[in-house]
Amino acid sequence: MVATKGIQRSVANWKSGVAGASGRYMEGIKATNDWQQKAMAAEDSYAAGIQAAVANKSREKGIAKTSNSEWQNNAITKGGARWAPGVNAAEADYSKGLAPVLAIIEGVTLPARTNDAAANVTARVTPIAVALQKAKREGRL
């Protein structure tokens, strides 16, 4: 039988270690200058891991472990407090990502509106969706 520190001590150790972790986390980020190369070099491993997770139904199994009330509680108590500061901190990134999307939409020429709502959706929404999908597939988005 393997002796462990037990759940209470293990959790206490984990919790006390978190206090200084943000500084170490930021130091590690600052010391990294080739994350893209490393991430791209691991593409085959990433794909294999995703395929294995799908085959194993890992996502489904993980979802089954959390009740709806537990998910709601965690999303509200953790995510709710973090959401607005995260969005505010991402304003420049949002603007950078949205600019090419709007440029593509603005480059689409649409036919005049008609009095047929369904025809308008087909004639006016579809060209925008097609243009955005084409740009995404071409790597422009």
What does this structure look like?
This protein is an all-alpha fold and 141 residues long. It contains 8 helices and no strands. The chain has helices at 6-18, 21-30, 35-41, 43-56, 58-64, 68-89, 91-106, 117-137. It is elongated, with a radius of gyration of 24 Å. The model has no long low-confidence stretch (mean pLDDT 92).
Quote the beta fraction.
under 5%
Describe the global form.
elongated
Mean pLDDT: 92
Helix content: over 70%
Structure summary, number of beta strands: 0
* Structure class: mainly alpha
Total count of helical runs of at least 4 residues: 8
Gap between N and C termini? 55 Å
Largest sheet geometry: none
| Uncertain spans | none
Our Rg estimate from Cα atoms comes to 24 Å
Following the backbone from N to C, one meets helices and strands in this order, namely HHHHHHHH
Helix-strand layout with pairing:
Elements: H1 6-18, H2 21-30, H3 35-41, H4 43-56, H5 58-64, H6 68-89, H7 91-106, H8 117-137
Concise account of the structure shown:
The protein is mainly α and 141 residues long.
Keywords, separated by commas or semicolons:
mainly alpha; 8 helices; 0% strand; elongated; 141 residues
